[in-house]
Every structure is written in C-alpha cells, then in structure tokens.
Amino acid sequence: MNHSSPFRSALVRAPKIIKGTAAATLIFSFFALFSNALFTKIFNFPSPQYLFSLTTWGVHKFFAWQFVSYLFIQPISEGVSLGSILRLLFDLYLLYMVGTAIIETRGKKHFIGLYFGGALFVGIVAYLSLLFSGSPFPFAGASPAIYILLISFVFLTPHARIMLFLMVPMQAKWLVFGLIGVNLFLDFSNGHFLSFFTTGAALVYGYLYPILVWEILSPFYRLHNIEKKMIYWKRKVSNHLSKSSLTLREK
C-alpha cells in the first residue's frame, strides 16, 4: 500500500502551470540572491534582483515586466540567509498545495486570474506606494499572491480545518484572515507602510474575486447581505454592458 504524504501527492498531481511557476520562482530567486554581489561589486551593474524587483526607477525606465516579475524574486533586503530560504520554500509549499486545489476545483484560468492577476493589482498598489512615499527601495516576494490564493481557498472550503503549529486545529477562515489581520496590525504599528498597503491590496483582491467572479459568498455570514448586493450590482452592470455591446453591433 502506498502511504505517500499529502505533500508528495501534491507534487505528483500538481498541474504544469504550478510546477512551472514554482520552478521559475526557485531558479530566479536563487540566481538573483547569489549573483547580487557579482553584478553590483564586480560588473558595477544593477543585479537581476534589482532589475526584476518592482522599483519606481524600473517602471520609469519602462521595465513593465516588473509589475509581475517581482513575484519570482525574494526581497533584496534579506540577502542570502536561512530565513529567506525557509520563507521561499514555505511559499512554494503553499503554492503547490493551495494552487493545485484551486485548479482542480475551478480550473487553470482562475488560478491565473488569482495569482498573476492579483500580483498585477498588488504591483500597481506597490508602485503607487513607492511613488508617493518617494522610496527608492524595491518591492519583491510572492507573499501577497499567496495570501490571495489562501483567501480564495477559504471561500471554496469554508469549514476546512488546519493544524496550527501541527497541534491546534483551527478553521481555515479564522487562521487565514487572522494571520492577515495580525500582519496588517504589525506593519501599520511598525511603520512598514509598503507592506501594509500591499497586504491590504491582496486582502481586497482575494476577497472580491470569489464574490464578483465566482459569485459565491464568504464564510462570514454577517457580510452576506453586503456580498449579495455586490453580486446583484455586478450582474446589473454586466447585463447593461452586454446590451450596449449588442446595440453597437446591430448598428
């Protein structure tokens, strides 16, 4: 009998887009981390870590790829450390597990809409935050996109339980939204406003996508009336746009 672990099972059944995204993240992150000193100190040239992270300098140079490429790069301030490597591996683990579950239940296009569409939205918010603060520092990391996947997972499996610290069972909705809430509080309290706004953007995108695209309600019953109105107005606007498009075609 095969007693493979859930992680090994996820590796086997993970779709190609998940494997490709994880592999690209791993390769680009390690290459950027280990080549940083080579490019900056020997070649006197901006490192791949800086070129592919999101920066106001890069956007003003029309490096449009930075709005998504920052996903595949670890934060430049961390450098090479055990903490940065563990964080990268944990993000990849969540990408495998949650991303595979989303594709199996909703399809590949919705994974793309959540992970890469969400990354683009967060990237725009990050750029505006960097621009208005006048900060020259880069923004990088897949954590906001991972948050978006986790939020959508909570919508799909509202009663799922996750073992906190491998000991305490908690409902996924309280663990995920509680974790995001704590991060928002700590970022704001410590003055990490870039992280605060990008995490907030991930929360907004991850919350609105299932409601407006999948038309499913959140696991928080007190918000259902508001969410039903959002779905109603979304349908009304969609119908109006469809009728307008049909009228234009007839003309």
Automatic annotation (TrEMBL):
Pfam families hit by this protein: Rhomboid
Membrane topology type: Multi-pass membrane protein
Primary location group: membrane
Alphabetic keyword roster: Membrane, Transmembrane, Transmembrane helix
InterPro entries: Peptidase_S54_rhomboid_dom, Rhomboid-like_sf
SUPFAM superfamilies found in the cross-reference section: Rhomboid-like
Ranges where the Peptidase S54 rhomboid domain occurs: 83-214
Record localization: Membrane
TM ranges: 20-39, 79-99, 111-131, 137-156, 163-186, 192-214
Protein name: Peptidase S54 rhomboid domain-containing protein
Organism: Candidatus Neptunichlamydia vexilliferae
Taxonomic lineage from the root: Bacteria, Pseudomonadati, Chlamydiota, Chlamydiia, Parachlamydiales
